[in-house]
């Protein structure tokens, strides 16, 4: 561990690991507050590779977007010869994907709470010229108060109203059609992905399904959005309307993040009919 990190924080235990490093729970030696430290092995993400770019993108983006109540906060950055150490918010070990797997679908009210927090985070990103590009349940974490924190900004990209980005990134079920078609795209790819997340929270399965990545992409490109009665019969017409506006193949007609936040299902808490 970095000498500076060890001076400021006591490492408690490992709480997660991935392809490029390990996440530890730690405690501040001066305040007693708990944090997470994400230690990334630099040799695994060296050079000009996409992984190396992601390593540099995430801390820069988090620093730029902080603080926001629904975005994981970067508190400090430490570096030694072998590792980059990102000091971030400590969240529970359960993300939205785990929650759905463990407890099943969310009620409409529960889904709206999570979704509204998510869209506030996405709107903050877009207002600041950032497109996340990998919105999915695995990247939606919960803190000790069950507030969501949007995480994993390794694929994030800077974009303006006039500029577009390119490149196929993201996870198959959540990738917008324009990305799959190889077109340049903008902020509304995040709105599409968030729409898929909302659908999954309510249904327990994605709106466009396939056994393989190719099958999934074909289903996404067909864009045949359905609401099976066995699942959606008790779901309000208002949220179905919102899903149609988010999962719209025509980018010009798809809602922006700001429009999503002003939709009655989100803006009017009493509207569940």
TrEMBL record:
Residue intervals of the Protein kinase domain: 9-266
Source organism superkingdom: Eukaryota
Signal peptide (UniProt feature, chain positions): none
Keywords: ATP-binding, Kinase, Nucleotide-binding, Serine/threonine-protein kinase, Transferase
InterPro entries: CDPK_Ser/Thr_kinases (IPR050205), Prot_kinase_dom (IPR000719), Protein_kinase_ATP_BS (IPR017441), Ser/Thr_kinase_AS (IPR008271)
CDD domains attached to this UniProt entry: STKc_CAMK
One Pfam family here: Pkinase
UniProt-recorded Gene Ontology molecular function terms: ATP binding; protein serine/threonine kinase activity
Residue positions binding ATP: 42
PANTHER family: SERINE/THREONINE-PROTEIN KINASE (PTHR24349)
Family: Belongs to the protein kinase superfamily. CAMK Ser/Thr protein kinase family. CaMK subfamily.
Protein name stated in the entry: Protein kinase domain-containing protein
């Amino acid at each position: 561990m970095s000498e500076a990190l060890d001076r400021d924080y006591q490492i408690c235990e490992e709480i997660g690991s991935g392809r490029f490093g390990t996440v530890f729970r730690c405690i501040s030696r001066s305040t007693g507050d708990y944090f997470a430290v994400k230690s990334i092995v630099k040799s695994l993400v060296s050079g000009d590779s996409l992984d190396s770019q992601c390593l540099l993108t995430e801390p820069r983006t988090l620093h730029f977007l902080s603080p926001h109540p629904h975005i994981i906060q970067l508190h400090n950055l430490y570096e030694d010869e072998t590792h980059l150490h990102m000091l971030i918010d400590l969240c529970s070990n359960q993300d939205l994907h785990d929650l759905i797997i463990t407890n099943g679908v969310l009620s409409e009210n529960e889904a709206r709470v999570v979704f509204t927090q998510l869209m506030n985070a996405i709107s903050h990103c877009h207002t600041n010229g950032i497109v996340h590009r990998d919105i999915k349940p695995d990247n939606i974490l919960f803190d000790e108060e069950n507030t969501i924190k949007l995480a994993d900004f390794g694929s994030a990209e800077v974009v303006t109203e006039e500029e577009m980005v390119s490149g196929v990134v993201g996870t198959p079920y959540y990738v917008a059609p324009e990305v799959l078609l190889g077109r340049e795209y903008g902020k509304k790819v995040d709105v599409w992905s968030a729409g898929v997340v909302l659908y999954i929270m309510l249904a327990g399965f994605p709106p466009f399904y396939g056994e393989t990545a190719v099958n999934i992409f074909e289903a996404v490109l067909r864009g045949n959005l359905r609401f099976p009665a066995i699942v959606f019969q008790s779901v309000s017409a208002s949220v179905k309307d919102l899903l149609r506006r988010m999962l719209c193949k025509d980018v010009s007609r798809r809602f922006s993040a700001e429009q999503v936040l002003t939709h009655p299902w989100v803006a009017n808490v009493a509207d569940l009919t």
